[in-house]
Design brief:
Helix content: 10-25%
Structural class: alpha/beta
Radius of gyration: 22 Å
Distance between the termini: 45 Å
Strand content: 25-35%
Order of helices and strands: HEEEHEEEEHEHEHEEHEHEHEHEEEEEH
Number of helices: 10
Number of strands: 19
Shape: globular
Length: 401
């Protein structure tokens, strides 16, 4: 429901229905369970797409307090059942203005409690209705604290979320038959099917292009599961964007005559995206266009330069991760979503470590000493409060000049 300033509060909302505008009545909902591959069983109530009897995937958690809609529609969460550590979700509803992609990619959603009602002048529907409309099965009334402590101690695990009347043993067997995330190339399932020129949405009132009146550099964006906010940021900084599929060949890229190449975020194991790694090796050898990578793009660049990656125990997912910029010696509070990391010991000597995670000292960014190539593991476009990582987009624009 959109807020109309010309109406009173009583006119805005039917007070008789205020208690049920956020979720289904409990009498219409189903008991649900989430079963992990270690045998743990957590009970709750299903909501969202209750016509979907089960969903499987890697069970992970995020420490973000808000942003559930952006999380659900981030393609990097493909193949994963996302657990929110913040206990209350859905209190501000859902709106199409906050989508990071056309629809949710998360396999399932786990929360402690769904708000009885939502209150936000921008909201168009409840979180429950958003999940139902987009076919995402979710569960509430789960002890998410216990679940997250389990994932932190034992690591991310395969799991199944189900409303089916099956035994725990049957669901456990199904969870253990879910593919491991390591070795999975999920990019082909989330990338654009064909190339397109990006046009900023007129629905975004905050959009304003920088550097108006100057020639816009042409950037080819390789889409491994890109978030819309990355495209908005690049465009705001003055770039003209052509978005191309993850399977794009080197010849197809060069036909565009780009001034720069951007490698996006995305899901799955970077080492499994073999064709892209081979293509990037040839692209780097040309020593022509500046290249900027974020998240999966950062990992793919590292692999193409000769480095290796490894799977983190439970990953980095949240909006409050401290990262040190080793060049400026400043600390950035960053938004993150990744389950793999770069092993710096394997990187070539002509690469310089530029950013370091202060929680576990994993690699958060690097630059090439001789070529205009740089990348970061975190999400500078997300701006979780501060906008202190925005300089990376400026740096990319300057590199193309």
């Amino acid at each position: 429901m959109k807020w109309n300033p010309g109406k009173s509060c009583n006119e805005q909302m039917d007070l008789n229905s205020i208690a049920t505008n956020g979720r289904k009545l409990e009498s219409t909902r189903k008991p649900a369970r989430i079963v992990l591959e270690n045998g743990a069983v957590l009970h709750g109530l299903g909501f969202g797409a209750l016509d979907v009897p089960r969903t499987t995937g890697e069970v992970v958690f995020t420490t973000s307090i808000t942003g559930y809609q952006e999380i659900l529609t981030d393609p990097s969460y493909a193949g994963q059942i996302v657990t929110m550590t913040n206990p209350l979700m859905g209190n501000y509803g859902a709106t199409d203005d906050d989508l990071e992609s056309a629809y949710p990619f998360a396999s399932g959603f786990v929360v402690r409690e769904v708000a009885e009602r939502y209150s936000n002048w921008r909201a168009e529907e409840s979180l429950d209705r958003f999940l139902e409309r987009n076919g995402v099965l979710a569960i509430e009334q789960v002890d998410t604290r216990r679940l997250v402590r389990m994932l932190r101690s034992e690591g991310a695990m395969r799991g199944i979320l189900s409303t089916e009347e099956l035994s725990d043993a049957e669901l456990l067997e199904a969870a253990r038959h879910t593919p491991q995330m390591a070795g999975l190339d999920l990019t082909k399932g989330v990338t654009t099917k064909e190339s397109y020129d990006y046009t900023p949405s007129e629905l975004s009132p905050s959009f304003s292009r920088r550097g108006q009146g100057v020639v816009s550099p042409h950037v080819v964006v390789i889409d491994y599961g890109i978030k819309q906010n990355i495209l908005r940021k690049l465009s705001q900084h003055g770039a003209r964007l052509t978005v191309m599929p993850s399977t794009t060949t080197l010849d197809e890229i060069l036909e565009q005559k780009p001034d720069g190449i951007f490698l996006s975020n995305g899901p799955g194991d970077p080492d499994a995206v073999k064709d892209t790694i081979a293509m990037l090796k040839h692209l780097i050898k040309r020593e022509e266009q500046p290249i900027f990578g974020i998240c999966l793009g950062h990992q793919l660049l590292s692999l193409a330069l000769g480095g290796t990656t490894y799977k983190l125990k439970f990953g980095h997912r949240g909006a409050n991760h401290p990262v040190k910029n080793l060049i400026s010696e400043k600390i950035e509070i960053t938004s993150q979503n990744h389950g793999f990391a770069v092993d710096w010991k394997t990187m070539p000597k002509d690469c310089e470590l530029t950013h370091l995670n202060l929680n576990d000292h994993t690699v958060e960014g690097f630059r090439h000493m001789k070529l205009p190539i740089f990348a970061v593991q975190y999400h500078p476009e997300a701006s979780p409060g501060p906008h202190e990582s925005d300089y990376l987009f400026t740096q990319f624009m300057q590199a193309m000049k």
